[in-house]
């Protein structure tokens, strides 16, 4: 079993090319280790169930931490959401909504869709113990 001092798993910044070469698609895809495979998973290797993990999903228009937004699951009937599913103790699936993802703009709080923008994503997985 993983130890609480274990370093988190980090995909690094990945350019979303889930719609094909240089083409982003945030709608009904899996955000995984391979940013070109819309059915991919995250292989974190922490040997722990989802209930002992903290999963963070960040997006950035330019692939830098200085310009990043942490997304939260969302839901409801909007179609803009994501969920995290356990596959096994070393793999998770991040499933996006049928319309993609969304975030609240920091200037006015308006809901902004993320569906075809050529943005980057990063997944960090922490073992909580």
The level-1 CATH class = Mainly Beta
Unreliable stretches (pLDDT < 50, length at least 5) are: none
Percent strand equals 35-45%
Number of discrete helical segments? 0
Mean pLDDT: 92
Can you summarize the main beta sheet?
5 strands, antiparallel
CATH architecture tag: Sandwich
- Structural domain count: 1
Structural category: mainly beta
- Please bin the fraction of helical residues: under 10%
Give me the strand/helix succession. EEEEEEEEEE
Radius of gyration: 14 Å
Shape field: globular
Description:
The chain is an all-beta fold. The protein has one domain: Immunoglobulin-like (Sandwich), CATH 2.60.40. Helices cover 0% and strands 36% of the residues. It is globular, with a radius of gyration of 14 Å. The mean pLDDT is 92.
Present the secondary structure layout.
Elements: E1 9-10, E2 14-15, E3 42-43, E4 53-60, E5 68-71, E6 82-88, E7 91-96, E8 101-104, E9 111-114, E10 120-127
Quick recap of the structure?
With 129 residues, the chain is mainly beta.
Characteristics:
129 residues, mainly beta, Immunoglobulin-like, 5-stranded antiparallel beta sheet, 3-stranded antiparallel beta sheet, 36% strand, globular
